[in-house]
Each structure stands twice: as structure tokens, then as C-alpha cells.
Design goal:
Elements (H helix, E strand, L loop, with lengths): L24 H16 L4 E3 L9 E4 L9 E5 L2 E3 L7 E20 L7 E15 L5 E8 H13 L10 H18 L1
Antiparallel strand pairs: 1-2, 2-5, 3-4, 3-7, 5-6, 6-7
Bound molecules: zinc ion.
Amino acid sequence: MILEIVKYGHPALRAKGKRIEAVNEKIRKLAEDMFATMKDAEGVGLAAQQVGVPVQLCVLDTRDVPNRPSRMKIDGKEINFDDYMPLALINPEVEKIGPLVLGGEGCLSFPGISADVARPEAVTVKATGLDGNPIEFEAKGLLARAVQHEHDHLHGILFIDRLNKKERDRVDRDVRRIAAQNS
Ligand code: ZN
């Protein structure tokens, strides 16, 4: 089922996600619906806050993004990340590694806005999967950026909070317009 994506101004986007204690049918159904919603919106990531449910669940799919490769390692070995997508992460913990790199980002809750955001180039992620088992991996490239963007959502942090002054000023009018339409 395709869910409604809430836009900036909706209070769920500023809510810290509640920890998920049990991976039950309800959570699996929410994740399935989020996969469908992300695909329909042609997004590379979606957090539960964006469908109005403030819990620690996000989904990612960084396949098929021209010129923006991802890399993923499990147990130190490079793996084909396509095999793991779409990927759902429950209660993710993210460790950021390496120097800041600037990259373009958009957000399904900010239609029409994109901006450059500086983030560490790599991450290690520990989370629970939809089968209830632990998932642990390292990511670089677009996947590392998308994980950080979604992990921020789970804590009520939005990409506009991470812009430098110049970028924030550049998008300010559009951000205010979206907020006015949605609050
Ligand atoms: Zn977003």
C-alpha cells in the first residue's frame, strides 16, 4: 500500500522515533508499505517519520542511481549491495567515519528542494533486520549518505539543519513555502 508522505511542517518530522522492541507483523507491514511508497516516489530512502509514524525504522534503496555509486562491506568483504536492496533498518546505530564530503541531497518531505550537504564519507551501521536478526555493514558513497540522512530523520533531524549558511539562505524561501502549506 502506498502511504502518504508528510511534508515539512508536519510535527512527525520533528519527533524522535520510538525504539522498536519487537519485530512483529505490524512492523513488517509498515516496512513493506514504506518500500512501495519509496519506490513510487522514486526515493533512495524513507524514514517512518515521513509517513507519520515516529518509530526507529527506515528503508533504503540506492540501486539505479546514475553516477552515484554505493559500496557496501559485510565482515570487511565487499559485497554486491544490490542483493540487499531494498533494505530496512530497525533501531539503527550509525558510526560516522572519515572526512566530510559535500554531496547533493533532496528529501521526499521537501519536494523540489535540493542542496549540498557535508557529511562523513563512510559509516558503519548496526541495526536489526525485518527477520529480527542483527545486520552490520560498512557503507561508502551514496548509501553512506542516505543512511546518515535517514538516521537523522529517526532523531527528528532534517537535512536543512545541516546546510551551511549559504545553502540554507538559498533554499529558505522554498522551505518557508512548504512549511506554510503544511502546518
Ligand atoms: Zn529525508
